[in-house]
Amino acid sequence: MYLIEITSTPAVAGDRNTIGGWPILDPGQTWPACRCGTQMALFFQLDIPLDVPTFGGDHLLAFQCPRHNEACFPPRDRQLPALYWDQPPPPNKMSFWRILRQRAGVRAASADPHLQPLRLTLERAEEVSDRHGNGASAFKVGGLPAWIQGPENYRCACGTELAFLCQVPENVGFPKRPEAEPQIDSFSAAEYGMFLGNEVYLLACPARCDPAAVWPVNQN
Ligand SMILES: [Zn+2]
Ligand SMILES: [Zn+2]
């Protein structure tokens, strides 16, 4: 697994491991917009190191609407429906997030206007699992999830079991630009949080049926 650290070093256009900044999108792909019409904020993006099983070599991007800050609730059925990233199953009302994974990519022309563009660093670390099979709770990519409320497993719409990709611990703060509005219902006046600051587990489709085939599990 790789531990992810938010540094205080400003990111520049072309950086691939960032919070905020210039998203690396597929050619022809538009900047994700929320169902409410608002352009989503780029919380973070990173190149998944090549030695991370299944997902190594992909570029991961995590967006959330700057005006919608809620939790993603567990669906009743572990089989996710078609287009679950766009029309999430109940009790979720709408998709205010977009998690993307892809290989090709071109830099967007402009930077995210909400979050400070800062570089991320990734540091390789040995995963140590406890007797329940939980890994370390950390902002990390690869390794094992550290479940707070017990494991959750889902099957992608394409029929493939989703696999753990990335964890964002509770109340990880993403510093906002001074001129940006404070995030609604944030735990901080100066930072944005993902999914109300819940623990976030990104489960992704190993079959790569769609760049957005990722389900964000929340626990607290
Ligand atoms: Zn929205
Ligand atoms: Zn799939």
Structure overview:
This protein has a single domain, classed as Roll (Hypothetical protein YwqG fold). 41% of the residues are buried. A seven-stranded antiparallel β-sheet has the order 2-8-1-9-10-13-14, with no helix packed on it. By secondary structure, the protein is mainly β. The chain is 0% helix and 30% strand. The chain is built from no helices and 14 strands. The protein binds zinc ion (ZN) (2 copies). The site of one zinc ion has 7 residues, from loops. It comes from Plantactinospora alkalitolerans. This is DUF1963 domain-containing protein.
Q: Give the names of the bound compounds.
A: zinc ion
Biggest sheet details: 7 strands, antiparallel
What is the top-level CATH class?
Mainly Beta
> How much helical structure, as a percent, in the residues?
under 10%
Oligomer: single chain
Number of strands: 14
Number of helices: 0
Count of distinct structural domains: 1
**Secondary-structure element order, as H and E?**
EEEEEEEEEEEEEE
Strand content: 25-35%
Mean of all residue-level pLDDT scores: 96
Report low-confidence residues grouped into runs of 5 or more: none
Write the topology of this structure.
Blueprint: E1 2-10, E2 18-19, E3 24-25, E4 41-47, E5 59-64, E6 97-102, E7 106-107, E8 118-124, E9 140-141, E10 163-168, E11 174-175, E12 191-192, E13 199-204, E14 214-219
Antiparallel strand pairs: 1-8, 1-9, 2-8, 3-7, 4-5, 5-6, 9-10, 10-13, 11-12, 13-14
This protein binds zinc ion (ZN) (2 copies).
One zinc ion binds next to loops.
Summarize the structure.
By secondary structure, the chain is mostly beta strands.
